[in-house]
Amino acid sequence: MNSSSQPPTLHGTPTADLLPELHRQVLAATGGLASVLLQRDVRSGGYRASSGRGFSTLEGAWVGAEFSADFAAAALEGPTVRPLAALPGLADRLEGHEVLIVPLVEDGGTAFLLVTGVGFSASAVTAAARARTEFSLALRVTRLTKRQTLFLELQGIFRVFTRGVTATRSLRTSLDALALDTNALFGTRQVAIWLHDRGERTLSLAGCSDAAWISPPVAAHAADPPARGLRLERPRLDPAAGTVELLAPLRGWRRALGTVVIEGAPGDLDDGEYLDIAHELARQLSSAIENVQLVGQLLQHHRLLEDTFNSLADLVVVVDTQQRVVQTNEAFAARVEAPRTGLLREPFDALVGEDLASWVSRAEPGEGPAAVRTRQFTSEQLDGVFAATVTPLLNQHGQSMGQVVVMRDITAQTLLEREQAALRARLAQSEKLASLGQFVAGIAHEMNNPLQGVLGHLELLMTTSEVARPLRPTLKRIYQEGDRAAKIVRNLLVFAGSRRMARRRVRIERVLARAVASRAAALRRAHITVVRRVPEEIPAISGDPSLLQQAFLNILINAEHAVLTPRAGEGAAPGRIEITVSRTDTGAVRTAIRDTGPGIPGDLLPRIFDPFFTTKDVGAGTGLGLAITYGIIQEHGGSILAANAPEGGAILTIDLPAFAPGGASARQART
Predict the structure, then answer these.
(1) Averaged over 165-170, what is the pLDDT?
(2) C-alpha span between 665 and 671 (Å, rounded)
């Protein structure tokens, strides 16, 4: 057999070609027929071929577990030449009569180089012995290159995973893709990723390379593989599994996140490599899952704060030190009818008005940097009455960054308080007038009887007594004054409600027309225009036409006198009286009579319906006109209210119930 004594050399061969080139060179140096590199398979206990030359196939087990001890004992004696029959389990794999065995001592006896042939010389054995250094280095380089390649592929998988989570915001979908890519990387049967729910104390399947595989949650304290893996510190091959199964714990900062369960043997990895890469997989996946969960929690807290912020019914605005808007809630944006993003950097005073903006920006004397201020204001821009609270916006160092302004809409509350105050005033007025009416009624009855006796005797004296003829002018004046006193008494009885009414169905526009007509001449002389607005659909009312005419006439006379009263700093000028009839939400008929006079002083409004109260000069009025009107309206079941109109002048509003066919008012109208 020809052989060469020169040992094989690497000569800068590419990593992927190192072992094939070494096999070629060792065959050339030893004159062998074929060569194979056998490595220990820890899982099976036998030996498998990792590279070779001159064989049709390298697949399958070369040395079974039952022969591995005898083979290792014989092979470790090398470099040596042995007859093929001395190597158990290899007879049906190798050709030739002899086998040159070279143990690769750098790998702890776990790998052997076998060269088959016939009649190996001593120089061939020496050349093979020198080759083991190159083979050991080539194995190490190949292993490191494969390891580096796997780690690079693993990094690529995680880059795809990160992009997927960022794009879809779905951890489950991204974990499915990661499990599928990891399964392909290892060449295993299935990769499953289980996540730990600390609240429920269970592990749930969050990702799997088999999209059709479904598994119920597993209790964290159970004996199932995901639960066992959760309690580990590092990945390990599970000896309890019936097949090759790797459990890799997912651990975050001081807490367990879950478990990666990999089923099936990896394609071309020994156990050490497999566990190292599984550890790196678990480390990177733990970091990624924890980051995703933390981001999810931050987003959840942000959404909660945002939802809370926007759920506030109060208007909230955050402004910087330059009084420009930096944040608002939806309530404020809806009130100003603008999108929230469009309000950013807008001047605060343009949105709420100069009054509030200047108050927000101006610190009160003696206030500290964290003082909270509150005030009530009315804003035309925001269309309402608000209670505003301004709080300084401070950073972590206590430095002012602006203000937080919270505005509560109290428009309805303010209106309600005003209405309640008006109702209380009207109730007090009604109680006062009712008490006064009882008192007046008693006095009027007591005075009416002697007055009627005096007037009767005076009339008899003037018509029948010749003795009194010279005194008739004086008696006539006495009679007129007595009659005037009797008329006052009658008016007091009307105010007190002691006069019986003749109720019937009445059209309010006709009553108003007769009242205006009775003052037509006086109104023309005073150049006062009367404007009536009466819709056609106004219903009839039930009442005494003459009493109602008297009531409206009294109001018209007061309005006429008010219009003729000069305003402060102005002379007397022609004016107008507006009469508007409408229907209230409750169905009552409302008559509003407004004049263009100077209005009623606020301190006199509560007294204008009091008997004998008048602002006219002495002798110009009795002060009973509006008191009588008040009594008439009350007797008709209505109400009367005096106020100052926003556009100027006084306005009296009378509400009278509408005529109800078949009701009490209708029955009274028929009697």
Answers:
(1) 78
(2) 10
Q: Share the mean pLDDT of the chain.
A: 82
Residue 324's Cα: distance from chain center in Å? 23
The residues facing 631 across adjacent strands are none
Domain ranges of the chain: 15-148, 169-299, 310-363+372-409, 414-495, 504-670
- Homologous superfamily in CATH for domain 15-148: GAF domain (3.30.450.40)
Q: Are 89 and 47 in contact (CB under 8 A)?
A: no
Q: How confident is the model over 444-464, as pLDDT tens digits?
A: 667 777 877 777 777 777 777
Give the pTM. Answer: 0.51
Strand blocks (E) in 410-536: 504-506, 529-533
Asked if the domains at 15-148 and 310-363+372-409 fall in one CATH topology, the answer is yes
Task: Write out the DSSP string of 159-223.
Answer: HHHHHHHHHH--HHHHHHHHHHHHHHHHT-SEEEEEEEETTTTEEEEEEESSTT-----EETTSS
| Preceding peptide of 20 cis, ω within 30° | no
User: What does CATH list as the number for 414-495?
Assistant: 1.10.287
The three-state DSSP-derived secondary structure of 96-138 is CCEEEEEECHHHCCCEEEEEEECCCCHHHHHHHHHHHHHHHHH
Angstrom CA distances, 575 to 38, 300, 514, 519, 572, stand at 122, 68, 21, 15, 9
Arch. (CATH architecture) of 504-670: 2-Layer Sandwich (3.30)
CA–CA dist 491, 631 (Å, integer):
10
Token pair belonging to 359: 């108050």
Q: Which CATH superfamily is domain 310-363+372-409 in?
A: PAS domain (3.30.450.20)
Task: Quote the longest CA-to-CA distance of the chain.
Answer: 190
The span from the CA of 262 to the CA of 209, in Å, is: 10
Vertex 130, ends 127 and 136: CA angle to 5°? 130
Count CB-CB contacts under 10 A for residue 467: 8
Between the two ends of the chain, the Cα-to-Cα distance in Å is 151
* Beta partners for residue 384, in sequence order: 379
Mean pLDDT of 7-35: 78
- Residue 534 CA: distances (Å) to CA of 513, 572, 580, 581, 589: 11, 29, 6, 5, 11
264 pLDDT above the threshold of 50 = yes
75-86: string of b/e by CB count within 10 Å (b at 16+)?
Answer: beebbbbbeeee
Strand, coil or helix: 149: helix
3-state helix, strand, coil in the chain (%, to 5): 45, 20, 30
**What percentage of the chain reaches a pLDDT higher than 70?**
85
CATH class, domain 169-299, is alpha beta
pLDDT tens column, 337-383: 889 888 899 998 888 888 888 888 886 554 555 578 888 888 888 88
Residue 106: pLDDT above 80? no
Could you tell me the strand order of the sheet in which 255-263 lies?
Answer: 218-219, 202-208, 190-197, 255-263, 245-252, 236-237
